[in-house]
Design goal:
three-stranded mixed β-sheet
Length: 88
Amino acid sequence: MADPTPDQVRDFIAAGLQCTHLEVEGDGRHFFATIVSPVFEGLPRVRRHQAVYAALGDRMREEIHALSMKTLTPAEHLSQAGQAPHHH
């Protein structure tokens, strides 16, 4: 199977998980995803990651080890966005 593109990975996640914000960066081998979903409310990080893996399903069984992710609820995402880095 050809290495997936970041867009494909994003589409895979979006197809299986309700997201309010979804960004995927990567080079075909290693990916970093920022995933914001109301599904994550009240879930610990491990359960959030399991939800993403479930959304990806078999499509990325081989590549899954190369996916790093930041999983946030919409509220967490908002509070992070409000904490812009201070420039000196």
